[in-house]
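Reposting from the mailing list since nobody answered there.

I have sequence plus structure tokens for a pair of proteins and want to know whether others read the tokens the same way I do. The first protein:
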Amino acid sequence: MSDIATYSGRRSLRNRFGYEERSAIFFLAPVMAVLMSVAVFPILYSLYLSFFQIKLTRPNRTPFVWFQNYTDLFTNELFWTSVRRTVVFSIVSVVAIAMIALLVSLLLNQNFRGRRVLSTILLVPWAIPYVANALMWKWIYDSGYGALNGLLYQLGFIEDYVIWLGDQDKTLLLIANAFVWKEVPLATILLLVTLKSIPADLYQAARVDGASVWQRFVHITLPSMKPGFMLVMIYETMMAIRHFDLFFILTEGGPGHASHVLSWHIYVETFRNLSFGSGAAMSYVLALVTFALSYLFIRTLGRKV
């Protein structure tokens, strides 16, 4: 009876999946195994670690603390400081990226001489790796031989060289400027593709009805660009919230706590304080916030016009 049941089970499996489906499963199985080992397993393991008090300075003592690592975050003043810095950095960066990308995409959507050259130049910041971008801006902001000081000094805007990254009031905005410069090209491409998909008949009908340029922009262009704006807002918000490279290379969270954002706080807690349990807990808080914001953007901007 067991042999008959096994045989019937195999026949039902073959009937359910044809030759092409079975071949696809066979060839995709190694890829899925690799993804499970390098992506899914680390995620689940870090979630497991977040329920333990793991500190490498005492490796033999790792008590199971349930949600204590998560609850301790809400009483940590430095954690809330990093959250506030992250919110400011994200809002400034994402708003600036969206506005600049909108203006540049509207410009590139027009026909003029040199448009292709300008489009090629636009891709240069996007092609530069993140670490190279951070090192470049570190040289630009340098107080001794930086290009920004040299340019402003030659133009007569400053009398002495300024320590740009040493000012707590300017540091976060200067880092946001470097981040915006890197991210604007991709956002521009996404919005430009959305602009190209708007039917020309809508603009022709609006001109016949006597609509001005501003009216066509408000009532046709902006509503039709909602899908592109949704992608830009989701992607750039995720990048801004979890961005780490610029803060590590330019300031290392300083001066003081002026650039101590959440991603830097997670790094310090995990790899400098060697508290892997609380570091994993903060990472999951960051992930949950990112998912919540993405869901909010999809619900608001993803609605049909």
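The second protein, same order (residues first, tokens after):
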Amino acid sequence: MRYKLLGKSGLRVSEMALGTMTFGTDWGWGADREESKRIFDAYVLAGGNFIDTANRYTDGTSERYVGEFIAEDRDRFVVATKYTITNRDGDPNAGGNHRKNLALSLRHSMERLDVDYVDLLWVHMWDRTTPLEETMRALDDVVSSGKVHYVGISDTPAWVVARANTIAELRGWTRFNALQIKYSLVERTPERDLLPMARELDLAVTPWAIVGAGVLTGKYTREDGTTGDERLLTEEERARVALSDRSLAIAREVDAVAADVGCTSSQVAISWMRSRPGVIVPILGARSLDQMEDNLGALDVDLSGDRLDRLDRASAIEPGFPHDFLEAPFVRNLMYSGEWDNIDDHRPH
């Protein structure tokens, strides 16, 4: 594995992160301790150092397992956890982005992880009620205390993230260096605002659900997982993963590219993700060692321009307003006096 800088920082993280929401069987579908350790070891053997967990993943079991697995060489790993999600149902202050929940959640996470610092603390999602000034100042305090080294934000509108970092920079507080989003070939809507914002603000992006909740693995479009024969889907399966005709069509194109390349559909989906512009660090989530080894195999898959074009066309989305309006030739002529094609713009877009 190669390494990338975590946004506007000097921290080096591996080009793929290990997602640990599957660590623990508390929710009825994860990996037990032994299998979780095998998944962890395979990731580390491949050169990975970036571990992603959260305070409520498998009711705290994920953090406990991560703490056990990193204990022998804690300082080698970049450990990221999250706060926001409630720690106790029925208590209105046991969740949210406010200072009280931050202090409580971070303390409990550090106890479960058995660490005296967290490398990256994520705001798990925007709670809509806590003032951004309160959140950013509270995050700056835990960084100043040494309990946290860097902060990031997940599952939040682009305008909120941009405003938060503007406030932090103007007041000399710690800014967000990373953004976590749902992003895949079947979910490209972040390309409208979140990803351009991340490139402009120099945020590292760690996408989750990168194989579309299993849609892009071939499990719904291949009879036996290796052939291109689509199997009959039950209504229950369609409902469970929100399968649409569009997502199935994209999955079939992924299968076709995988057959051309000689790799798995999952590896194609992950390789496409790795080709996206900006600092993209996909989160690998696996319930078994076989799944993790298959995902890591994407490191050896290099899709050609033609194959990337096929995937882009199959999964393309409408940019929507104001993006398509601003790209219209008539509007461009109004802005650039008809000279758009003669202007060399060196800035990334």
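Reply #1 (J.P.):
I read it the same way you do. Residues 3-317 form a domain with the TIM Barrel fold (CATH 3.20.20.100).
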